[in-house]
Amino acid sequence: MQEKQFIQKGARKVRLHEHLQKELEGAGYSHADVVRTPTSTKIVVYAQRPGLVIGRGGSRIKELTGTVENQFNFENPQIEVNEIEEPDANAQIVAQSMASWLEKGGRAKRVGYTYLRRIKEAGIIGAEIEITGKLSGNRGRTEKFSYGYVKRCGNTSKENVDKGYQLARTKPGAIGVKVRLMKEMPDFMHRNVDVQEEIMHETITGETEDAKADRINMIIEEAENMTGGEIERAIEELEEIQTGDITQDEIREVFENQPEKEEKEEDESKTDEEASEPDSEEADEEEGDEAEMEEIVSGTISDVKDALEEMEEPDYQAALKAEKNQKNRKTLTNWLENKKE
Q: Total domain count for the chain?
């Protein structure tokens, strides 16, 4: 019997929250606390604009009080309104603002980064934002934005983490906005958190394994070797592809499992020996220049740049051609194209 009463009281509180959220949408409603006293039921409403909740001469709050008493059977309800001084530090207000912006056509990444910066400026220790749905195209995906420290489980997650959720109804479909804010550290934790830590962003898509393998191969082709620093450089250079879900261990594993390329140099040398000699000395000079340029671009990117800049009249066009025929590194090809112009 007691269990049934607890369920009824919980359901009534949920219905009250949904009613207030619908009625006070323009006032920036966040949440409401229900406190029972011996003589009355005190309902504390937290809103961004309390003036709209109270109304002119208290007319709006009187209307809400009557509705709450009649529809939700609260005994002698007394509604009190508290103002939210820092809206960017309230998870529900942030979620509602982001959902409103998305409904007006805002792009998910711009919305996420903007509000993450505003949360950061509000002095929050850590934040996590998830935007899920059909953000672009027919395939749904999730954009995650985070910084700082946010507890995800345990009693600390219940007491110290403010949670908010709002649904944005757009033309492609519904988009869910979930916000988690770590306002303060618990007393038993003695950990220094750098709020100015670099913002992390992750994109989760439903792509196939082949598509991910193609992205990994692009990183391997850009990197000169499999050292950690060179892999990070290659990932930074490839800004047009998403690399947030690719780790260095995955890149090295794909590199080690690649079949060895057949060496064609011996066949080419045999073909050159069997071929007839050139008709003129100019052909010899051209082949010598090409061989010299191929030898130059076979080195590291820094060595290639130094070798070309030391020449009196460097042939950037020939170097570009040799690089495309060999490694075709994006960083070096861009540099050669700019020099050629």
A: 4
